[in-house]
Amino acid sequence: MPGLAEELTHLEPKHAFFIGIDSDGCVFDTMEIKQKQCFCPNNIAFFGLQAVSRYAREATEFVNLYSRQRGTNRYPAILAVLDLLSKRREVIEQGVKIPRLDRLREWVRREPTLSQSALRAEVERTGDPELRHVLAWSEAVDAAIAATVKATPPFPFVRESLEAASLRADILVVSQTPLEALQREWSAHSLARYVRAIAGQEHGTKAEHLALASRGKYAADRVLMIGDAQGDYRAARQNGACFFPIVPGDEARSWKRFLNESFDRFLTGAFRGPYEAELLRAFDAALPEQPGW
């Protein structure tokens, strides 16, 4: 972590404006396939959810795709999935015991960098069997992603937006995806050329990414976060930055609006206030807090 943090801290501004951009579900249409084809089967297999697989799928998709928890780091996310299942009437009636993963909960509460490498170090230090099992789950998810998620293109208008924005702003990828996957995806689609650096879960939280790379280097109203999840919005607000939402289910139109309208407003100081509030209302409406079951 220290070396990675220094990498962001030492980024020198080339422009007066700074933009942080999330990756999965924001730039690339990868959220659906990763959650439905990679996370969900491994959630069921590793945590004994076969008897309630239908409800496990619904909980996984709600937490990670269709709720305000969308985009949450995988370790607190799996805990949220298990918590939803443990309270669901149909699961209780079937008498299926849902694991609590108390050791993982304790690790999530105290670990500042919720990365696979940090979890591996904890397993090596403690030998804890529960954490070792969670590590095996996480590694299986990554293997499934590497085998399954290939040549997934960016959303329409992303490339044009990055090309235009890179001429006026320093751009940083801000993500909780493992760094190796981010580098592979951004390079495969020739998008890495538009960004100054790529920050993944190994660099810390999204709020830390923004703070390390932008604080003290740019005026607050010249820092913008682009994301598709409430965690992206919170990271922006923790740093006093502007926020442009990519609305889940309406990604192409969101990027087209950024390219044709919102980026100019950001550059001219006309983004904050009523305009940003209008964007946030549509964003909030797309991500409910509670499931409908």
Structure keywords:
293 residues, alpha/beta, Rossmann fold, 2 domains, 5-stranded parallel beta sheet, 14 helices
**Biggest sheet character:** 5 strands, parallel
Write down the domain tally.
2
Sequence of secondary-structure elements: HEHHHHHHHHEHEHEHEHH
CATH architecture of the largest domain: 3-Layer(aba) Sandwich
- CATH fold call of the largest domain: Rossmann fold
Number of helices, where a helix is a run of at least 4 consecutive DSSP H or I residues: 14
Q: Rounded to an integer, what's the Rg over CA atoms?
A: 19 Å
How would you name the CATH homologous superfamily of the largest domain? Answer: HAD superfamily/HAD-like
Number of strands: 5
End-to-end separation:
40 Å
Looking at the structure, what is the overall shape? globular
Write the layout of secondary structure elements.
Blueprint: H1 2-9, E1 17-21, H2 31-46, H3 53-64, H4 74-87, H5 89-94, H6 102-110, H7 116-126, H8 129-148, H9 158-166, E2 169-174, H10 179-188, E3 197-199, H11 206-214, E4 223-227, H12 230-238, E5 242-245, H13 251-268, H14 274-286
Parallel strand pairs: 1-2, 1-4, 2-3, 4-5
Helix pairs in contact: 1-11, 2-3, 2-8, 3-4, 7-8, 9-13, 11-12
